[in-house]
Amino acid sequence: NSTGLPDAGQYVTARDLDGNDTYRGRSFCQGVGLFGIGLLIDEAGRDRYEGDVHVQGTGLPGGIGAVIDRAGDDDYYAKGLIPTNYGDAGVFDAWSQGCGMGFRTIASGGLGLLLDGGGNDRMEAGNFSQGGGYYYGLGILRAAGREGDRYIGSRYNQGFTAHQAVGVFLEDGGNDIY
User: pLDDT tens digits for 11-22?
Assistant: First the structure.
């Protein structure tokens, strides 16, 4: 189409085999599905994922969004575009990092996955992130491996759920900080 974006219902995938990579975008990138499938697979390396909102494994209505990072010490960051409606100064909504999100009273949520295969990882996100579901959505964050990981969230993080949804946060082990 003329926009350069995939049509609704289209399957989009990106795969990187090796190297220390930086994935940088504002919104609707890094494994996001809206009436389709968005998949980002990174096989190895010390990687950094940067975004603001609806990034890093977000499944919106009719969609599956997934980031699968198989190995390496990785850094995930998602926040900074939409100030929260909760009145907390300096806090932003992210809807990221394994988030299945629907639009209340309009459309049920999709499936959002963030699967990290191991390494000393750091995940930082604003509200509604890190393995959560909202309005009939299903969000899963799975961190494999026994290394120490760090999880930083604002509100509705690390296995949250709201409005008939399912949120799953699975951490295999290690000396983690939440």
Answer: 556 777 888 999
Question: Could you give the C-alpha distances from 51 to 55, 60, 95, 146, 170, in angstroms and in order?
Answer: 6, 16, 11, 26, 22
Residue pLDDT, tens place only, 27-39: 999 999 999 999 9
Return the sign of the alpha-carbon dihedral for residues 118, 48, 169, 165: negative
Show the 3-state SS of 42-82.
ECCCCCEEEECEEECCEECCCCEEEEEECCCCCEEEECCCE
Count of all residues that appear for the chain in the document: 178
CA angle 108, 109, 113 (to 5 degrees): 165
The tally of CA atoms less than 13 A away on the side-chain side of residue 149 is 28
Kindly report the average pLDDT of the chain as a whole number. Answer: 91
State how far the Cα of 59 lies from the Cα of 38, in Å rounded to an integer. Answer: 9
